[in-house]
Design goal:
2 copies of one chain form a homodimer.
Chain A (H helix, E strand, L loop, with lengths): L5 E6 L4 H11 L4 E8 L17 E5 L11 E6 L6 H4 L3 H17 L1 E12 L26 H21 L2 E7 L2 E2 L10 H10 L4 E4 L5 E3 L1 E2 H14 L7 E4 L4 E3 H11 L5 E4 L14 H6 L9 H16 L1 H4 L10
Parallel strand pairs in A: 1-2, 1-4, 2-3, 4-5, 5-6, 6-11, 7-10, 8-13
Antiparallel strand pairs in A: 9-12
Chain lengths: ~325, ~325
């Protein structure tokens, strides 16, 4: 595809989404080298254990402290915890991974290179507009308990957008909405993986609040399809943020009930609402459809939940995995 | 006042507001040492030229790169450009001064120390609510041309608020509204100093847009009174952001006309509106009045403008300063 194979860096490439992106990138014959930088805080070495490719290298370090003389043609910045219990436990590190991490990555960009960033629907906060178009400025409490993540992401968007404006750097920004699927950490803390791991362990499925808060559940394969198109495979030259997610909005309770229906003995309980938990979240996909023709989230949550359950079941209790997702609920 | 004199650091202490804060701090007998860290990007050595005090030291460096073994009991973080033409010219440095600068300062805080931050009304963006209470989440375009400043400040508020929540650090945050007065740089680019320096130089006073956008003009002495109370002289223990400003909202055009009335030959022209210039800005001072009884902005803009004009006139054309602000308009 190219006489000069691309040198690629994926920060956070051992994470849930990052490792799927690595798989996709290694499918490109024009990639000559792929370096993952990950401190394994919320990522895991096992997410990349299947990679057997001479082009691949893993550097275990904080991205903002990654020391190298190499320069990269494509940089993907996914280094950040993404689950409230993780980022709320170390807000300084969360902001540092996003903002300082991106500053460091800008230093590592080869002339004419491209930097791509996975931002979040959390930049919209608890939205007063639904669905949320990219032009919606959001409703984020910049001193609230979720602010290290929300504002770290917003500030990184600002940094990259202004670098694009001032220096002409090729920047791509995706705002991801509630991604789920295989390779989520069992202790990640987000809804679908929580429901599944709780039920598989014989614990009750806990819903924080009444469960009527809705989310747009994007199965990871669909999301990676969107990222591939936005970041490298569709020529578009658009520098602003683009929503990437599923616009089928489904209440948390509905998903929990579906998980419970798949696992014998599973039951649902309600806990205290999470602090500043948004009441709704749904992407306006007008821009994505216009920039990335043919892309949409194809996998309904029912199918995605089943696939995720199979993955967790195989992981948590291997013998049961052969016959599907029916482990001993008392295990 | 204290057996252990305080060690104080003021980042950005050679700047317009910072240097006034330094003067106020040096009036405290309990301050044993005061280190200003300033890279003189938008600050100026001359703002501190009058300081003749053995407790005082100036370190000329970026705050985020300030190397020292000292630890400080009180840290004041004012290191940031504050005028659009300056921060839009170097957004990376702007974000770095705020976010990375504050991370560095947190490392320099002595156990039990206090860190105080001057945030901005820009965290409200182009507000849809007026006046703006601290609880208003704002309307900031996080990828717009003002975003390095707005989001750099928001992210720093997040950083400090979360450090207070997680580590119990004593944090104080002031959101300042359109401060003006002596020691503004002649090329600062903000409204009142621009109007005055233009008119004193015989240039037309340029208003960007129709001038009907309103601002809350806070004379620097009033603002420093508020900061003194919020940051050290009134016991309150409040960690959230507090609006500090003048709640008398006055259109830009009115101020320009007042400046023009003081300077013979001055005339007003209109230019293109500044990008994403907010249409209004006015602090809700309910919280400030409750926390800081007795504080309010006492100096009306007419008086503040006259004082600022006198300062600029003495600076730009010394002979005219003796008789007031009536330099040769053709100079």
């Amino acid at each position: 595809m190219s006489a000069n194979p691309s040198k690629v860096l994926v920060a956070g490439g051992a994470g849930f989404i990052g490792s799927h992106l690595v798989d996709r990138l290694l499918g490109r014959p024009d990639v000559g080298r792929l370096v993952v930088v990950d401190n394994l805080w919320t990522g895991a070495r096992e997410n990349l254990a299947h990679v057997d490719d001479g082009r691949f290298a893993l550097a275990v370090t904080d991205v903002e402290r990654f020391a190298t003389e190499e320069r990269f043609d494509e940089i993907y910045q996914l280094a950040s915890p993404a689950s409230p219990q993780w980022y709320m436990s170390d807000p300084v590190r969360t902001i540092s991974a996003n903002v300082m991490g991106t500053m460091r990555l800008l230093d590592l960009l080869a002339p004419g290179g491209r930097i791509c960033f996975t931002s979040t629907s959390e930049v919209y906060g608890d939205p007063l507009v639904t669905p949320q178009p990219e032009s919606y400025r959001g409703s984020v409490d910049c001193t609230g308990p979720r602010s290290s993540y929300d504002e770290g992401k917003r500030c990184t968007e600002a940094l990259l957008s202004e670098v694009a404006r001032v220096h002409g750097t090729d920047v791509r920004i995706a705002r991801l909405f509630n991604v789920y699927g295989p390779r989520t950490k069992p202790d990640d803390g987000r809804a679908i993986s929580n429901f599944i791991t709780s039920a598989l362990s014989g614990e009750p499925i806990t819903i924080y609040g009444d469960g009527l808060q809705s989310r747009s559940w994007g199965y990871v394969d669909d999301i990676i399809d969107g990222l591939e198109k936005l970041f490298w495979s569709v020529p578009h030259g658009y520098a602003g943020p683009v929503n990437i997610g599923n616009d089928r909005e489904v209440p948390v309770l509905t998903v929990a009930q579906y998980v419970a229906s798949l696992i014998p003995g599973a039951r649902i309980v309600h806990g205290e609402p999470a602090p500043q938990d948004p009441s709704n979240r749904c992407p306006d996909l007008t821009l994505a459809r216009s920039l990335l023709p043919g892309w949409s989230c194809e996998i309904p949550y029912e199918e995605g939940v089943r696939r995720t359950l199979e993955w967790f079941a195989a992981r948590l209790s291997p013998p049961a995995a052969e016959g599907g997702a029916t482990p001993d609920p008392g295990a």
